[in-house]
Fold each of these.
Amino acid sequence: MDDRTSAPAGSGTDPAPADVDASGAPRGRGVAIVGRLARWEVLLAFVLLGLVWLGASLSPVFLSARNFSNLIAAVIEVGIIALPMALIIVAGEIDLSVESMVGLAASVLGFLYAAGYPLEMAIPAVLVVGALGGLLNGVLATMAGLPSLVVTLGTLALFRGLALVVLGPRGISGFPPEFSAFGFGTIPGTPLPWPFVIFAVLALVLGFVLHGTWIGRQLFAAGKNVGAARYSGVRVARMKLLLFVLAGLIAALAGVVLAARLASARADAGEGMTLTVVTIVLLGGVNIFGGRGTILGVVLAFFTLAVLGNALRLANIASEIQSIAIGVLLIISVVIPTLAHQFKSALDRALRGRRAPAGRVGPGEMANP
Amino acid sequence: MISKRFGRMTALTMVAALAAVACTPAATTVPSTTGPADTPGPSVAAPLDVVFIPKQINNPYFDAAASGAQKAATELGGTFLQVGPSAATEPQIPYIQDATTQGVSAIAISVNDPNAVVPALEAAQAAGIKIVGYDSSPAVGAYDVFVNQVDFSGVGVLLADWACELAPNCTGEIVVLSAAATASNQNAWIALMETTLEEPKYAGLTLLPTVYGDDDPNISTTQANALLTNYPDLKVIVAPTTVGILAAAQVVSQAGKSDSIKVTGLGFPNDMRSYVKDGTSPVFGLWSVPDLGYLTYQICAKLVAGEITGAPGETFTVTGLNNDQPYTIGADSIVILGPAFRFDAINIDEFDF
Amino acid sequence: MSELAVSARPAQPTLLRRLILTAGRHREVSLLVVMILLGALVAVRAPQFLSVSNLTQVTTLASIIAVAAVGQALVIITRNVDLSVESTIGLVAFVVAEILSARTLGVPAAIAFGIGLGLVLGMINGFVVAVMRVPAIVATLGTLSIYRGVDFLLAGGKQVTLTELPSGYTDAATATILGIPLFVVIAVVILAIVGIILRQTRFGRQVYAVGSNPEAATILGIRTRLVVFGAFALCGLCAGVAGVMWGIYFGTINATAATGAVLQVVAACVVGGVAIFGGSGTVVGAGLGALFLGFIQNALIIIRLSQFWLEAIYGLVILTAVAIDAVILRRLRRSIGARSRG
């Protein structure tokens, strides 16, 4: 998803930036952030509360500690991967290969462990593999200038294939009990699963990087205007490269967590995850074209999806309906901002008799004369 | 920027929409009465809520078992529900955990990966839920009873025998088209078949490397086609999976090779009838899959009621099965349903499942 | 093209570079050449590769993917993508099988229904992308899972076996016309029709225009959104045809049919020279790409290389094809730049 200056036909228009107010005067950054937060994240919080209420009414066991722990654990790996993915998408790229890296990581872990290496050696090796895979993605997508969509489509197949080659159809199990306890158990005294710690730390760190540092600002800028960002030099390319490496590393980590939780390392681990990861990121308010989004939104979206999946399962609603719901959710999460913007433009025009502040012009709309 | 009022309106609309989706009645599962979690203890009056978690829910084999289980549920006044992953490669753990949270009386499970489910099953056992394995067993210790549809070695011998019968002069290349590579039941059968094939009687048969169809009809078809291309001298395809045997028979029959290549293994008589008649698959076998489900449910009920604990040596009777003779629980808490049936041109029309 | 441009470059591109450029510019021809080389190599080791029965099988299976790839090429040329094709194929295959097994409709009517269903699903995609302005990758990722969910709901865990279908229905998979498999003929016909639409009609020219530069296209008065809608609709139509063919070829169909096919379809387009940037590529390329991938898959089976290598090789093929595309594009950009500067 790079060439944003000539957006694909039929794409959504971009809602007006929040750092200017209706009259066009620039706002302070703090106000801008709060202003931005007041939109999508509030909506999402409402939805989350609504789903919790729904879950509780659908099943009396919904609000138990055990259930809370289960529902988080069921999608924790997806949540972990969604965080670096959010940064990648904000920067205007995408990484479809994460699910295959999960599989490759599980595969290498299983292979090494079965070959006699202790986990203390196998896990770092797996993380290195993840970083290397991310490096491949990054080099091809940033240095060679290939579109990240197709590059990661290729590595989606490549990594999965390598996973199968390394481990074959076997499922490796018999991991030490501490390993499974990490994946399956909860932090003593709380209903939070251990892997949640990884998620929380990652959310805090990446949230800080994205929203509080100049790196984050560069990423937003890169996403907003790929052409201009390219001219600002090698720095952007290097940052994106690091992002892909990070995504690969985190995906590998998620693969380790998955193997711990399932007490089983298989080459087909993680199949289908990419869809859910992208759904969480987009549901969290990150624009697919880049340039806007918050980590808070992604975190809220993670909980929303976890709650939704769990509520539906407890109500014995068929998993097919769940996948339909996720697909609908994905589309809605993009439609609503567009509709809202169009609604607001129309409202502004009606009330004030003039065009709304100039945002991006979509195809099919003439620019202001 | 969305105004606060609009934000609230949209939020309410979204919640309503999602509520509408969530309230859609379940299409494929029998609704169960999940009331507040009663302690599932060994008392005669305990509610009987049983959940079956098969390898995958798109498989006619498990649907057949489910029909038997449902029949048992109706007779005993309990409830029956079947949930599970859509593909045999997806984890079963979330379903086990949710069943645990819901406080069901018993879980019957056919596993994709015998080890992956152990922590979840042990957690369920700790919560007082009875665990009964069927068809494909969890690792020993993670269940109370495992209902084996047929004696493993029995199947292994039968598969070898049928291959020998179908290969001219018990000589030639044979190959196994299996299900998922990690499926514990298929792997056990294949291992025992290989052991049987080492006997001198089978010296003329050459066993080629096993291929896996993942219990998916399309993948199994592709694999079967590949076998035909790669091994022009192939004599018999042995498919110990109802999905695989059908795909192999289809492929062989369509390629017009029914004279030179035979297909055998485990299959449903209704599926395979035409292939028995056209000579592609003169001999194959199975057991009564509905009976498997029926027996499994009955065992769940007996465990919940405290009539048995699953210890080896215990006996119990189920009317209508095993000629009304008592079953004995064997080592590793395994119960065997009964002998396998052999289907061939003589008796194929007598069966309807 | 002036080699003595302003920027510092070697005066003569290396032989490798020139080969890549020539190959890329005539993507279709180079694919054919590689396939012939591959065929020769494999045949040396395993002569049955070139046997009539094997070639028939390879081309028949590849035809199904080719038909879907032709539709996908249309969408990619407009600078979008349709990730939902595998769900469309699976859903159509199942619905047609179900209709036929219940004898609700006769064979021709059932086939027409299936193709029509594909068209409708494609139009839904087109609506979401062109009218609701949802980016194609998001929209089709969503419909990928929605259509598959509908498929599961309809199937209810059951499958339709070959024996339930009208007798002789699946014979079409092995039928031949003048010795050429029927499926190949169907694929070639569809390829020709869509190819003609793209080359000779105004719609076709608009498709290329929209993909090359959507804003310019709009300014020129082209109804961009309508063109995109049409591309998705046609893609769905092709996927519907592919779905019918899938059902005929495989016989037994359940709700998981065609899972994973989207990778093959998009790979076929990418390999066939349909650049993901939009605005370029041909349906012939897409068709040959499908054939190429089918050859590779078959070759792997023939030389008894473990099936597990297949996906890794798909990935490598995609990456190589895209890398070649990028080299060409950079060359083109530079040469355009050189021309305008010098």
Note: The beta strands of chain C are 159-160, 176-177, 180-181, 253-254.
Amino acid sequence: MFGRGLRLLSILSVVLVTGAFALVFFYAPNDADQGFLQKIFYLHVPLAIVSLCGFVAGGVYAARFLRSGDRAHDLRSYVAIHMSLILAVATLVTGSIWARASWGHWWLWDEPTLVAFLIVFLLYACYQPLRFSIEDRDRQARYAAVFAVVAGAFVPINFLSVRFAQRATTHPRVLGQSDALPGPMLLTFLVSLLAMTVLYVTLCKYELTSKHASIRLAQLRRRLAGDDDLLALPRSAAPQEL
Amino acid sequence: MTRAAAAIVRKDLLVELRTGEAVPAMVLFSLSTFVIFHFALDRDSLSGELAAGVFWVTLLFASVLAIGRLFVPEREQGGFDGFLLAPVDRTAMFVAKAIVLLCFLVAVEIVAVPAFAILLLGPSPWGALPGLIATLVLVDLGVAVIGTLVGALGVQARARDLIVPILLLPLLIPVVIAAARATSPLLLEAGAGALPGRWLGVLALYDLTFGLVAYAIFDFLLED
Amino acid sequence: MAAADAAPAAVELHDVGRAYGDRVALSGVSLRLEPGRTLAVFGANGAGKTTLLRILATLLRPHAGDARVLGLELPREAWKARGRIGLLAHEPLLYRDLSARENLRFHARLHDVPLQRGEALLDAVGLARRADEPVRDLSRGLAQRVAICRAVLHEPELLLLDEPLANLDPAAAETVDGLIGRPAGLARVLISHDVEAGLAEADQVLGLRGGRPVLLAGASEVGVADVRGIYR
């Protein structure tokens, strides 16, 4: 059900990621200030952007689930958030490494983007504990969806407040200054961003198909064991549990 | 809906007046926290950013106490069922609980603000008072909205007293940021400065956004 | 020649089912209950009786089948049915720190019913004297009486009763009979573990085992032994 185009996407991911790596190491020039270390930027920023978009997408799917009751949306919401959380951890780690290498500190409170990101991470890290602390599956899905929507609304507000709060920023602001990026760097960045996005979507699809398969397997097992299955519950083709 | 919300508010305030569990605990907690800060920071008096920070953090943690218990009687004494059986708009529960939380916060602040001024605040509070009250109003609204939502989310969870704080704190960080930035100029040693209005703007935006989101989404928490 | 009954059936279920996660709590329940009639539901613990009651109370959505209460389709029109259904659940649904009087006042406000009605009910069940004590100080039997008042406060057309006479002494049981018993003339769905008493009250009988209906008949057609057979 979720696996359409999986092979194509996998191939595309491999191609793009390899291409991005190639560009990063062989094409993009070294940064004037930061030298070779600056290249971590091509990993760190796409991680950050894709993970934030993934969180918001999780909120959108959650809203669709609440509206329609179709558990497929709930599954998509869960996987999107789960995957984005992993990317978020990677963002924080790579950001920290970059900060250490460039400015000598592992963590910088002066960076509104890094700080805002930490807050978002802390929030979404609660998603799974919340989810799994509610035993009733239907309620679990609904409550998780409510949380995902609220958290999705939180992300922009959070970034706004934190950015507002900081006076000077030493964190290079990429998106606002992409015209400041020289051509080859810009190209490399865009390719890296594309590669990260496709990789994210592919990984999400893998997780979706895998989860869906285990759900179907559990259903078939139950049917085999003679358990009551003649209710098409709930009334959708969507997976029924997580 | 207002009738139903008013009935719930009345009921909750009556229970609180009679059993006196939440508000006194929050007040005591705030006072103890002020004392702890005195020792932890090793300062007799605070001003400016430090004062603002201590005050808002204390208030935030005190509110966690109330939020954890906000929906517990409904869950344990069948209040949800009783409410769900009534021909009323389900959002009434959200509005009512938010108002109740707001009342609790105001009650605590009536004691905590003077206590803070006496115990820890260096400069005179009078000049700061109007700005402080304006900020308190917006902060209380934000805490009430988000707190009600998180309280309802947490009440069905197994480790309720753990889930509520960890959900609540990140969500309230923008409120703390805005409140601290808004009030620190008011508490300067040299005398109350001007309140940077844009922070009140941020608070208002926060309140409005989450007020709307919570209003739209709360019903889903009560369905079955 | 018989005039068609204009009033819709109090309860009409076709193949209704409900699951909690993986566990199917109820399936294949079909029945029809006319206004003013009583349906007694029997079954062992966990057989699905409470689930059925909660679906009829609009607290749970049916996952399968068609359910209609008072002619209204669930869950689509559930909001119209609220306020016309009275539920006496396993828990009294009362706030323990408030008095009986305050609890009834609260529910009266919630249902937009005059507060005097609560007073009248308290008198009717003989609780006027102790109406101002917190519910937690009342015995189970007295609390049950208050719960019964709460259930009928808004003059419902359909009563859903989960072991209504539990904890009530015979005198109290007689007192509340006018409110929730046959004399009240309301459509009732009654869960009871007292087979004889339940049968005596009922017009129809439903037996559940493992969430499935194993017995559905008019009360006159079954005997106590048939009902006991459900529990085995």
Note: The longest helix of chain A spans residues 183-224.
Amino acid sequence: MKTARVAYAGALHSATPHAQGLQLADGRVLAEQEVVWLPPFDVGTILALGLNYADHVRELSKELTVTAKDEPLVFLKGPGALVGHRGVTRRPDGVSVMHYECELAVVIGKTAKRVRAVDAMAHVAGYTVCNDYAIRDYLENWYRPNLRVKNRDAATVLGPWFVDAVDVPDPHALALRTLVNGQVTQSGHTADMINDIPALIEYLSEFMTLQSGDVILTGTPDGVVNVDVGDEVITEIDGIGRLVNTIVGDAAFGR
Amino acid sequence: MNPTPLRFDVPPFVLTGRVYAAVLNHVAQIRALGDAVNRPPYKAPPRAPALSIKPRNTQARDGDAVEVPAFAPALEIGATLGVVIGRTACRVPVGAALDWVAGYTIVNDLSVPLASHYRPAVRLKARDGFCPIGPRVVPAARIPRPDALAVTVRVDDAVVWHGDTGQRVRGVAQLLADVTEFMTLQPGDLLLLGAASPAPQAGPGQRVAIDIEELGTLNHTLIAAVP
């Protein structure tokens, strides 16, 4: 089952896919553009992985000293970073490189503490798509990736659908891609994660208790390019969803 | 550790459980790094506020016992002022930033001692129970000078650190202004000013008490993690 959370006609609703767009729980059928899409579940702790695809590590290797054998690079985000499907994300005037990152988001459904990899998938409630933007101009080598790069308001796009785990028999067999203004700029496969989902849950739950609603953003493959004001960025994962976002400038925020 | 959410009095002092911690915010700590700030892996001194996040699994209450992992002989005690946000804070002006503060509390931003400040070190800083908070939120109206509060850290009743909330790279108002330039804080969010450096340490079996002037005392114990 796929579910979304949307705002429509003055109230919040749960919705499911429909041939014409989506259907609210109360029966109303609507086009995708008629509603405001919110992150599709009540999000707890947001854990993100850097450098979790071998090809992306190679892509960045000129400026990094990591190898695939290092400890997973984990960083945290707060809820203000999130924005739903068909939202907008601000690109500050004057920055030189802002790029998307298409990622499979794994949602925890059952408390996980010191869970072994072999048991880990039982703690997954489902999946959604994430586009985790970064502005490289703001990167600093202190607690990198620092919050000014990775915890910006509305720069982590999540949705459109929460997909039940039971409907995704193998989350490591999914093609993912990004399209900028209709052109494919990033293409990868979840089979290429360095630390797969069970490994990540084992690693994280050894030191922190994962709770229902916590989400793990599993990293992005090769192929991140700069995006500009006015660009439409679509991150999609087969069987999970197609997540649309548009880049806007400072003027939209009265800056 | 008791996972029950923190309960603090009444609105507007109900916490959201979102905790953002300034790190490297003590002038002496940056000074002690010396020329290392210009060498790899850092290559330049910090510009924006360096921050870490203490997620909900880390949050503990006054009186709780915090587990010290077997691989760490002791933890760093990050005795810090906790700033409770009172209204939605986006791009607050430094001159009026304290108007966005509902109150203050005491926080221990615990960490396994870090060898480097290059990575977020989530495994060393975001372990269960690593963010004791309390014992209460004191209204901002009673704390006119949050950057000049005496701080005392005691371990097993011996004073191991004494100083104040001053000598920060960014004081409370400047920190609020610089952080909310790129991330909006909500009522009940906590922004931690950041501890002094070098931080005292304590290990399993010890009692930690942090006094901040006007705010009371935050107490907790450290215990060995069950393997």
Note: The first strand of chain B starts at residue 19 and ends at 22.
